[in-house]
Amino acid sequence: MERTAATPLSPTVIRIGTIVLAVVVNVIIVLIARGIAGEWPHAKVQGEWLAVTTVPATLATVVSGVGAWIAAAIIERQARRPAQVWLIVGVVVFLVSLISLTGAQNTFTAMTLGIMHLAAAAVITAGYLRTMPESRS
After folding, report:
1. φ and ψ of 51, to 5 deg
2. What is the pTM for the complete model shown?
3. With left for phi above 0 and alpha for psi between -120 and 50, is residue 47 left, alpha or beta?
4. What SS3 state is found at 48?
5. Is the pLDDT of residue 3 over 60?
6. pLDDT at 25
7. Phi, psi (deg, nearest 5) at residue 38
8. 122, 22 Cβ separation under 8 angstroms
9. Model confidence over 95-104: pLDDT tens digits?
10. In angstroms, rounded to a whole number, what is the distance separating the alpha carbons of residues 102 and 12?
11. How many other CB atoms sit within 10 Å of the CB of residue 90?
12. Alpha helix segments (H runs only) across the chain
């Protein structure tokens, strides 16, 4: 079957594309931060300060995207209004994720990681929202 511009993308394709876009955006953010500060931002992981390079940024974003996919699948099956519930859950999870920034090594790291959290949350929440039904019968 030949694909035309009118053929809609499947939710799976949209969600995979959303994860890829979130990864690309976060890698760009961490590279810009590295260029500005001359060093990688650092995050405390299990009591150790680790540099947030492109690899950890990619892994964290992919894990977040897959976790969001699982949450979206549950919401789609359980909620009467999946799109509305998804949007609320996305905002709440983003706000909760900001708690982790309180122990940042410095202001630069906190700002960089905060921007990365915002970017990933915005891309994933909006991307997955496109795949959510408005209501469930």
Report:
1. -70, 135
2. 0.89
3. left
4. strand
5. no
6. 98
7. 80, 5
8. no
9. 999 998 887 7
10. 35
11. 20
12. 11-37, 54-78, 82-97, 107-129
The first and second tokens of residue 95, run together, are: 């706000």
pLDDT at res. 61: 97
- Tens of pLDDT, residue by residue over 33-66, are 999 999 999 888 888 888 999 999 999 999 999 9
Angstrom distance (rounded) from CA 20 to CA 13: 11
Q: Which of 50, 76, 69 is nearest to 128 (CA)?
A: 69
Which among 110, 103, 128, 111 is positioned nearest to 18, based on CA atoms?
128
Q: Who wins on pLDDT, 80 or 6?
A: 80
Which of 47, 66, 72, 64 lies closest to 113 in space, CA to CA? 64
CA nearest 69: which of 132, 118, 135? Answer: 132
